[in-house]
Amino acid sequence: MTDLGFNAKDCGTCPIQHRAVCARCETDELATLEAMKYYRSFEAGQPIVWSGDRMDFVGSVVTGVASLSQAMEDGRTQMVGLLLPSDFLGRPGRAAAPYDVVAVTNTTLCCFRRKPFETMMGATPHLAQRLLEMTLDELDAAREWMLVLGRKTAREKIASLLAIIARREASLAPERGQDDMSFDLPLTREAMADYLGLTLETVSRQVSALKRDGVIVLDGKRRIVIPDFDALVAETGDDVDGGVFA
Amino acid sequence: MTDLGFNAKDCGTCPIQHRAVCARCETDELATLEAMKYYRSFEAGQPIVWSGDRMDFVGSVVTGVASLSQAMEDGRTQMVGLLLPSDFLGRPGRAAAPYDVVAVTNTTLCCFRRKPFETMMGATPHLAQRLLEMTLDELDAAREWMLVLGRKTAREKIASLLAIIARREASLAPERGQDDMSFDLPLTREAMADYLGLTLETVSRQVSALKRDGVIVLDGKRRIVIPDFDALVAETGDDVDGGVFA
DNA sequence: CGTGCACTTTGACGTGGATCAAGCTGGCGC
DNA sequence: GCGCCAGCTTGATCCACGTCAAAGTGCACG
Fold first, then answer.
1. CATH class for domain A152-236?
2. What angle do CA B96, B132, B137 make, to 5 degrees?
């Protein structure tokens, strides 16, 4: 919630708006975006917006992890997206948030107020095209996840989730090879269950099973080491190169 | 595959490109789009494109139903979208099709070659914005479906599918009230199963159960009559107004 | 250095939907 | 009119995952 007071120029730590949204912007457009942006941070567990709420900003994740989820009246919930650093949040042209957005870990967003952003979009054709690109990527990810939810076994679901997170982590720190990957799981067992359409007990059992079978190594409850990424991918049911977010 | 030879002006039957894609186009842009468009038709069961294929057109469905689906190596398949009349197919800026697209019933598409369409998009800012809108709608539909796949029971899944189709049918023929809805199911039990992440036997049993309970009436195997739409919606597990594609 | 509490693991048991296996039904070609 | 066959239904059985219950773990706080 608090404004971090980052210098607007201090974007070594914020690859977001320049490269992700506006890679082809001219200098003056870049400067306009720069001048408009501001930061917000949220603590782990804090809601960012509720489904149906008015949402007057768009932005992207600088650090941390946020989740998008939908709930049924009786309490069943399904996570429909996971926002990792560089992912975009919000939708130009739409006032109401379609999902609950919650900070899973401590999270910093780089934001723009929606109205001026929309105005800018109208004046900058490739901004709209860039947003379209990003939305198509989200759509592909959502549909890939439909396959996971509809057709995969519990073990394959867990492996798919770990593979996605491992890939994302690797792309954020590309200097390391893809052997000996390791990362801190940002999700509780319950959050994993909500993403995978399982119960937390089933998640726990399958994580234990993957550990027992040597596919993953646990260091504490959250730190995951993946000794052989290909072995993990083999557990997902996907063909080797076609996988999720390929 | 065959060109139907429809008159390019004959767009009473083709509400697609004018209103869906280009509602705000100026007259000359409209004329340009008109001149570029052509029709293709496919018979029930025919593939339109395979996943990974080069796809040199974009378009939308004029009549019929097509499906988007993904397959795993071992044959498990998940339908990730259903294209009904007025739905858009294809993605500007991307050469490769990400899913298998199959004509479920006899289908007619209104197409544009991709390259000139992209050029036009670059020159016509609101075309890109309109495409973004449509893609966001698809994204919402995909995520709504993730809730169906991840958290609903077989009976709720069937009810959700019937409710979606009934709503779409009603919006195509809005003169009829929403009591006494009826329509021909365009999908086989197997296709329904692929969409819902079930087996065809389970689909058959749950359809029978909904019939036994008076939620739906079957006239033959394909014609569905819905005596009370609200009763159907009550079976979906959604809250009354929040439902899929709300 | 306990005590509390959120998170996780593990066990025992139940069940919804998958699987396997017959039939049935209705449209179409001959 | 008859046979064929794709699509559908129904039954019997199985098993992956859910449910309920009880410990275990480790970090934060006194």
1. mainly alpha
2. 95
